[in-house]
Amino acid sequence: MEPIIEMVGVEKDYASGPVVVRALIDAHITVNEGEFVAIVGPSGSGKSTLMNIIGCLDRPSRGTYRLAGYDVGSRSNNARAVLRNRLIGFVFQGFNLLPRTTALENVELPLVYRGQRAKHRRAHARAVLAQVGLADRVDHTPNQLSGGQQQRVAIARALVTDPPLLLADEPTGNLDTRTSDEILALLQRLNRERSLTIVLVTHESDVALCASRVITMRDGHVRSDVRQSSPRDAGEAAARAQSEPEPTSARPGGE
Length: 255
What we know:
- By secondary structure, the protein is of the alpha/beta class.
- The chain has a domain at about 5-95 and about 165-240: Rossmann fold, CATH 3.40.50.
- The protein contains eight helices and ten strands.
- It has a six-stranded mixed β-sheet with strand order 6-7-8-3-9-10, sandwiched between helices.
- A hairpin with a 2-residue loop joins strand 1 (about 5-15) and strand 2 (about 20-30).
- Helix 3 crosses helix 4 (about 120-130) and helix 6 packs across helix 8 (about 235-240).
- The mean pLDDT is about 90.
């Protein structure tokens, strides 16, 4: 497998008045195609800064970052945006769906920006929604969908441009435990069947256990980088939960 993410001595500083905050310090990270990596750490550990740099939303203050062989740090804002749109799909905790448009229209949107013809983009969006288990929900708006279904729409939207890298920022943060496992099982299946590279940021240890590799951040440093030979099977956990009684209460947005 070829590296899709290569960081050598990457650092990021932020000015806070007269003080310079070192948010990321000497990060050396390589992620190969087809890996499923979780980034964990407490608030202020540097994991969000790391994610922003990986996602081409920010550039490093020092060091080298290559995404699929492209040197990100040397590129302009517009050039980074081109890389981001071509190579990365984003999934967020809050779903970020357009409220008055259907699931199909939400998933189509990235293809509209690419100028694809309506017939082709609609067919592709339908196919991707079917892949995430929502073939029968294409005409539903977000308020007609559960939290787990909304996150599936968001994942489909991230996948519709066929990016080699999926970045997921706390994708289960608004979901109950059973629905979280269903979403994680979907991500594991996409990683396994499509060799999709996934980098997931989370503060929950049971979520990180579903990845094949866990990078732990603290005080701006990469404190550990551990491979997991037997990741937690979220699909098995979700199947067990299906046979249990419905919870009497759930976190907002859960099924």
